[in-house]
């Protein structure tokens, strides 16, 4: 579905960019043909303005004496074409309109009026393109698409072609002649001019009339315009010109009547009419898509700036208050629960880091039916204060509930089996429990395996994304998630809400939201640092984040009632859930609009301006990164990879959100997927550090 949407969106934008930004907007007479003209046959250069460049001897036909064919180029235009048509009807004059395909698509009703009122119609290409300088593929495209659109709008087809930027036959160059012959191969007769009113210059009504007056009694094909700018001088000139010429014995006719040709315009086939209507619909759809995309771009930009301002302002305030005193020091022992399923690669480092804590702990490892000898390994360590409980595989929430029932203390810390704690992490994590209103504490999870681009990108995300958000949630008292890697809880609070639930894939988010709705405050203690093993491949990262995102959506839906509650639950709903909806669901869904529009801009708009906008977004993120790294005591070196992150990692993350939302809307049930462990983390150093592990 995503692929189909992407292909459809790309096609719509390509069509929009071609029709709007490759349009030949220069006036017809402002482009002078240059180049050799030796290849133009003398019969054409010295002949009439209606040219048949067939396979036999090329022919050119002149209008009859005292006959004037008024031709209008560049329309239809909603402002000027109706005025021209009204004037011609009042004067009982028929003219020939050479219409531009994109303008026909925009104003099909005007084109139908031209045909209905008996005027002749010809094409002026799809996007007013200079056919003599366009490659052959574009010449064919311009003719085919303009003919299709005409058929779709009016139900007729025409072989008459007025090439943009053409003039009189004696001005043809070899390139012009080559394009005329290609057009003839496609079934078109080329109609040039004998007299140019030069109304495109806007020289004044009097001068337009003077330029349009025939010299002698020869027939003329007069060039005028009903679009392309202010045509008030054209309308005013016609009001005076037509009566004067009628009084002098001139008659007005369509191009075919002027040269004695049978009516060339004929009804289009049903297939052509249908295809033309489809093309017009596609063009309108592409215009609508670009409009929507533009507004989405504005929305994404506004949300990005809003999030940056909100998180930085909150982080500054949080930084000033982060070492507040929660009350008397908390010294009571803590039960640490480690759920483990096939964690043999990293369980030893995790357990040893916990027993090395400078706070009294009991460690309970709950083996959830491992098949890799995880329980045997922990038991073989024979570390005092470490217990192993074995159970049949029932999932992480069940393992945590088992550990909770076996715990001996009121304060409980939950730790993933791939996480190692710094020596003071447990002590720091439980200090907020001096406040009896605190039911849970989020610690500071850090990426331990930072080697390579993927590790650096996740490190940046943890520091800039997760930790800045947690500071804001802490101040707003709406923390939605205590990470499974490092979180502290009151046992009584957990028992009051019935322990951990297995109805969502994000049991940590579900648990945290349930505590908030039960009236407990959840806080962030950045000094409680633990090091976790991040996914080492894109596939593993995709599976982890897909599970996280889908589980978060499940938890948000489960606790949607918090939006209308009061107290701590209301803060979670109206602050926390709203923040998640705006910045972790809606903003990633809008992110593709930024990238797609950037590509569109590079191809069809000003690449420099697009580059500056992109650089502005990157500078905003870099500024946030530098500030977040400084707050966390991290070296800013990994931020050099931030520009690269925008081309791979960010797209992966928003695709995860898109797929999660589609999965949720489809009502599918996503299974829990365990991340592959590599055992890349060792026992942490004896002193707190932000440099990772040796």
TrEMBL record:
Lineage top rank: taxon: Bacteria
Alphabetized, the UniProt keywords read: Glycosyltransferase, Membrane, Transferase, Transmembrane, Transmembrane helix
Q: Which Gene3D superfamilies match?
A: Glycoside hydrolase/deacetylase (3.20.20.370), Spore Coat Polysaccharide Biosynthesis Protein SpsA, Chain A (3.90.550.10)
The transmembrane residues are 579-605, 611-631, 652-672
Q: Where is each NodB homology domain found?
A: 66-253
Entries under PANTHER family matching the protein: POLY-BETA-1,6-N-ACETYL-D-GLUCOSAMINE SYNTHASE
Name the protein family. Belongs to the glycosyltransferase 2 family.
The entry's protein name is Glycosyltransferase
What is the native source organism of this protein?
A: Kribbella koreensis
């Amino acid at each position: 579905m995503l692929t189909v949407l992407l292909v459809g969106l790309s096609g719509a934008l390509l069509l929009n960019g071609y029709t709007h930004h490759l349009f030949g907007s220069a006036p017809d007479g402002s482009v002078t043909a240059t180049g050799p003209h030796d290849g133009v046959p003398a019969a054409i250069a010295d002949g009439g303005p209606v040219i048949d460049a067939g396979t036999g001897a090329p022919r050119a036909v002149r209008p009859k004496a005292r006959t004037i064919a008024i031709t209008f180029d560049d329309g239809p235009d909603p402002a000027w074409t109706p005025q021209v048509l009204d004037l011609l009807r009042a004067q009982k004059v028929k003219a020939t309109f050479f219409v531009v395909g994109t303008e026909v698509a925009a104003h099909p009703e005007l084109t139908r009026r031209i045909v209905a009122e008996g005027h002749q119609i010809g094409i002026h290409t799809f996007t007013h393109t200079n056919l003599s300088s366009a490659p052959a593929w574009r010449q064919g495209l311009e003719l085919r698409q303009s003919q299709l659109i005409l058929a779709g709008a009016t139900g007729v087809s025409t072989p008459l072609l007025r090439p943009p930027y053409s003039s009189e036959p004696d001005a043809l160059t070899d390139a012009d002649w080559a394009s005329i012959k290609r057009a003839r191969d496609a079934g078109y007769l080329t109609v040039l001019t004998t007299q140019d009113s030069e109304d495109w210059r806007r020289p004044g009504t009097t001068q337009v009339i003077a330029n349009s007056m025939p010299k002698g009694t020869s027939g003329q094909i007069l060039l005028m315009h009903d679009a392309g700018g202010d045509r008030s001088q054209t309308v005013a000139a016609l009001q005076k010109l037509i009566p004067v010429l009628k009084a002098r014995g001139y008659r007005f006719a369509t191009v075919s009547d002027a040269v004695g040709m049978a009516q060339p315009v004929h009804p289009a086939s049903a297939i052509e009419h249908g295809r033309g209507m489809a093309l017009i619909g596609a063009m309108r759809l592409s215009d609508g898509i670009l409009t929507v995309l533009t507004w989405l771009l504005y929305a994404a930009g506004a949300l990005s700036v809003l999030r940056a301002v909100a998180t930085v302002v909150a982080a500054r305030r949080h930084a000033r208050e982060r070492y507040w005193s929660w009350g008397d020091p908390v010294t009571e022992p803590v039960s640490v629960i480690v759920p483990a399923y096939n964690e043999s690669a990293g369980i030893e480092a995790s357990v040893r880091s916990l027993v090395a804590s400078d706070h009294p702990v009991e460690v309970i490892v709950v083996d959830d039916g491992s098949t890799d000898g995880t329980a045997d390994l922990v038991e073989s360590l024979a570390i005092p204060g470490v217990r192993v409980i074995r159970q049949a595989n029932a999932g992480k929430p069940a393992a945590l509930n088992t550990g909770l029932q076996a715990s001996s203390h009121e304060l409980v810390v939950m730790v993933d089996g791939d996480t190692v704690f710094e020596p003071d992490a447990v002590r720091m994590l439980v200090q907020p429990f001096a406040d009896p209103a605190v039911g849970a504490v989020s610690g500071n999870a850090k990426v331990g395996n930072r080697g390579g681009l993927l590790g650096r990108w996740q490190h940046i995300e943890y520091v800039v994304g997760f930790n800045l958000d947690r500071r804001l949630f802490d101040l707003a008292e709406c923390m939605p998630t205590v990470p499974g890697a490092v979180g502290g809880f009151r046992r009584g609070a957990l028992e009051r809400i019935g322990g951990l639930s297995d109805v969502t894939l994000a049991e940590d988010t579900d648990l945290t939201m349930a505590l908030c709705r039960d009236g407990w405050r959840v806080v962030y203690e950045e000094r409680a640092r633990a090091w976790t093993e991040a996914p080492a491949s894109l596939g593993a990262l995709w599976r982890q984040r897909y599970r996280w995102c889908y589980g978060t959506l499940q938890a948000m839906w489960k606790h949607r009632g918090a939006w209308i509650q009061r107290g701590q639950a209301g803060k979670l709903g109206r602050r926390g859930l709203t923040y998640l909806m705006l910045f972790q669901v809606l903003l990633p869904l809008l992110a593709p609009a930024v990238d797609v529009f950037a590509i569109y801009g590079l191809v069809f708009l000003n690449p420099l301006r697009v580059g500056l906008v992109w650089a502005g977004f990157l500078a905003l993120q870099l500024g946030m990164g530098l500030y977040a790294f400084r707050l966390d005591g991290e070296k800013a070196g990994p931020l050099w990879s931030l520009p690269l992150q925008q081309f791979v990692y960010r797209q992966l993350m928003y695709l995860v959100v898109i797929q999660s939302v589609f999965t949720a809307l489809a009502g599918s049930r996503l299974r829990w997927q365990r991340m592959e462990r590599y055992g890349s983390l060792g026992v942490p150093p004896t002193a707190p550090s932000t440099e990772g592990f040796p």
